[in-house]
Amino acid sequence: MNNEVLITTGILVSLIGTFAGGIISLFGKNNFIQRTAQIVTALALLLGTASSGAFLMMNLQPLTIFNLGTLFPGQFVIDHLSAIFFLLVNAVGFLATIYGTRYVLNEAHLYNISYVQFLTSFFLLGMQMVVLSTNAVSFLFSWEVMSLSSFLLVIADFKHSSIRAAIFYLIMTHLGAGALLAGFLLLSGGSLSLNFSQIAQLVPQMSSITAISAFLLFFFGFGSKSGLFPFHGWLPEAHPQAPSHISALMSGIMLKIAVYGFLRVILFMLPVMPIEIGMTVTVIGLFSAVFGVLYATIETDIKRILAFSSIENLGLIFTMIGIYLIAKNLQMDLLAQISLIVILFQSICHAFFKSGLFMSAGVIAQTFHTRNIEKMGGMAKNMKLFSFAVLLLALTAAALPPSGAFIGEWIILQTIIGTLAIAPLGFKIILLLTFVVFGFVAGMAVFAMVRFFGIAFLAKSRTTNAHVEANLKHDPQAELLIPIVILAFVVFGLGSIAQFITKIIGNGILTESYQKTFDTSFNLFGTSFNPSMLLVIIVAAILAAYLFRYFTSNRKNERQYHSWDCGQPIDASMEYTGTAFASPLRFFFNMILRTNKKVESKPVLASNPWITKKSISIETYPIWDQYFYEPIVKLVAFISAKIRKLQSGIIQFYIALILITLVITAIATL
Amino acid sequence: MNLLVIFYQFLIVALVAPFAAGLVKFFKARLQGRRGASPFLPYFTILTLLKKQMVISESTSWVFRISPFIVFGTSLFMALVLPLMTANLALVTFSNFIIVAGILILGAIFLVFGGLESASAFGGMGASREMTITALIEPTVLLIFGTLALNSGSTEISNMVLHLDFLKNPFIIPTILALALVALAENARYPVDNPATHLELTMVHEAMVLEYSGPYLALLEYASFLKLTFFSLLVANFIWPIGLITGSITNNFALSLVIAPLILLAKIIVMMFLLALLESTIVKMRFYRIQEYATVAFFLALGGIILTLVNITIL
Predict the structure, then answer these.
(1) Closest by Cβ to B105, choosing from A440, A446, A537
(2) How far apart are CA A80 and CA A597, in angstroms?
(3) Cis, peptide link before residue A402, omega less than 30° from 0
(4) Which residue, of A425, B13, B153, B250, has the greatest Cβ tally within 10 A?
(5) What pLDDT sits at residue A519?
(6) CB–CB of A373/A302 below 8 Å?
(7) CA-based nearest residue to A125, from A48, A239, A33, A226
(8) Residue A621: which pLDDT band, with cuts at 50, 70 and 90?
(9) Interface with A, mutate which of B13, B51, B76 (most A CBs under 10 A)
């Protein structure tokens, strides 16, 4: 048996296994059946990871997985681009499934285990199938499997707040899906069962207006799915409400599936777009990044912090897609290829670190029984391995050297500086804007991640009841801990082996003349940088610092004492809170981060106005609600009120309406 | 061989750093009409601290213990890769400005973690302020080095210093000014922070290291001395890159090994005098006006890069 057959079989078995895992979980709620379902799903995903990994390593030609023929139009094919995303779905899905086994048990009072497992399997299956689809019907069908199962997972705890968030999500995701359907209809001239490659052959004969309209529809469809401003309102509502491993999959993988879909359409179907389109995508991406990161710095719900940070990350990825489009238009080949590499590399990094962070947020929430960052603290003291893993994830999310995300950022910034001098004027402005906003977002992302880790993990716990203190005594259970640790080490380590990853990514994308750009070290615009060496030098410098201490002072000479307290005993309630930590930023960015701060003071005794009881409340109200969603809601309500007048309840009137409709239809057809 | 010269720079900078910190205090005292302590006092401070017993707060965890090493390590990294006494010899790639900006932040955030670990309002306040300043000046840092990269044709700071010519590129003056503002903010000097007080209204850096004592405090103090040294040398070298050992000096190599440290010392003395002069003539800013300071620095840097781009496009 040759490799191709092995890989095809592996991927096929992984699809069947994921499907089977979902079906098995329906057979009953007892522990054995559910465990079997989980193990089958996990093994299937592991097999999928291995197969697609092997496909990428061997740099194979596209392989047909299976062909349903007449039953279901089109075939399922794995090529280089889909293999990258298939690998992400399976690898993160595998870890999330392992994590989910314990997570759901710990929350057994909230979740129906069979319900969650069935939907998780189908959610994963939907995503697996999206990336393998080669025509619009199977693409949209898998897309719906993914969207609907994730919708049902968001409401898994059947709480009022979850249902509200989920309905918002359902509406937005279907507006997006509708746009995708319209886009495919436009491109394929009405026949959805055409293959993507057949569509690509049709496209050159198309008028540019049609192509641009199709592009805009796809941009709305995929952009709203990945939470681009201003269609991101659902994301910070829906992602946090799902069980944590589902949040991890939604934020880490489902957003990447949208990126995949957009790339598939741009790279393989649409013609070169006018430069204004690329600029629009870039600017919207930058807007999303700025808005996302600013809210991530002030939010107090840990999962919402991560959701806003996802908006930021996806904003940056779409910025790079915009730069790719412009570069393609201007025939700046090197820039186009590098931005494509960075898009994929950052997607991989983001998939790993964001899913890891969401899983950690699940553990944190289970430790403190709340998602409010103001009640946390003190996790680093005894949960050593867990806090170390989260620290690595947070450093990666903040794109600090030598983590994976830093290398991606390095490539793009280096490229912008290298291109700035030779780009035409309009593009120069866009590149300069991108450069500045990347800097701003990088700074703010560091702030958000330092706050996330610093407030939740360091110092003393802000909740002091026996149950929480018992939780804080030891690392979380192994099934929860191991996936997080694996993700943390992989994504942090990606920075040191980035040259190999970009090489593998580049195999299918870079033309040969550019492949040497990403050889054993990056050769970009006059610099030759080896990421592995960076780690070595940083570690050497820190080791030197340790040796300095080791040889100059006595390591045993220390004692424990409480923190300096100015003579008055201090407790955890006097620590800086998350709100206080972000207070300078809330003040500086007052224009965007609208806050309502209320200080109320009531006299304790009516007779004495001086001794008062004070309470303070701070709430933020997002400006997009005020200026974007609320006017839409008002408009819809206004139109509905007008239309309601038609429904007078008189039967003769309705018959008249039918008649008028018939007449109009008759005129239209004649 | 090149690597050895780099280590030579590393050693010289590490040796000079406490002197630089002492010198600025000394100049300041003289300018304010006081006698002032000897500029060599910081050496004794560090030696004393290394001998002292450490008091570790009960509220801290392992992050508190690794922070000093990472903060000090990042400062050592800078002393190794930046063009302070040598330029363009070895490890040039790692003086890439994006890496340098990233490593600077890495040091800053571990200092912040150390501050948060104290579980008192002081540490948290210093941490929050430090993080705010770091985050606000980040775009400016990138812009400054981006401008210098465009003007010098290299993204490595080690190469930048050699290829900048003020006469040819007068429009980098706002950029250098912005660099000076950033250097003041990064080093917790006036008008952003007051390094001399322990007053909760004003302190940023001191509030974070409040809970550290003994050898850990020595490491953190040393790291801040190093930071002051490499930033002032960097600014000096951007303005006047004289006396740097480069690959091209081969015939007088032995001589340059002696002269270069002397020139470095001269630069330190001049820069510290200027810093002391500045700190004696201006007042500290209210913290809630830092965004104005950051905005000024940002627009200076933006002006620099726009002038550069106009120059590249038109001329």
Answers:
(1) A446
(2) 52
(3) yes
(4) B13
(5) 65
(6) yes
(7) A48
(8) confident
(9) B76
